[in-house]
């Protein structure tokens, strides 16, 4: 659905990325170390930034 630039795929990617960041935050708060989740947080943050860019939102017809 991402290749076909489907609006639902954009929404799914945004929700999953935010959920992933929330889970990483919970792991960090409950005693996990930054070393355990640093890759997940960095990749998720980059994906979320890319998804929220105006050009990406426009391509998916969000605005």
If you had to describe this structure to a student in words, what would you say it looks like?
Keywords: Membrane, Transmembrane, Transmembrane helix. The chain crosses the membrane at residues 9-28, 34-53. The protein is mainly alpha-helical. The chain has one domain (7-59). It has helices at residues 7-29, 34-52, 54-59. Helix 1 (7-29) packs antiparallel against helix 2. It is elongated and about 40 Å long. The two termini are 19 Å apart.
Topology:
Layout (H helix, E strand, L loop, with lengths): L6 H23 L4 H19 L1 H6 L4
Helix pairs in contact: 1-2
Keywords: Membrane, Transmembrane, Transmembrane helix
Question: Short description, anyone?
Answer:
The chain contains three helices and no strands.
List keywords for this structure.
63 residues, mainly alpha, 3 helices, 0% strand
């Amino acid at each position: 659905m991402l290749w076909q630039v489907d609006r639902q795929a954009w929404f799914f990617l945004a929700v999953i990325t935010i959920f992933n960041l929330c889970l990483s935050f919970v792991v960090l708060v409950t005693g996990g170390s930054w070393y355990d989740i640093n890759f997940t947080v960095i990749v998720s943050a980059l994906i979320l930034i890319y998804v929220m860019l105006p050009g990406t939102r426009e391509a998916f017809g969000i605005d």
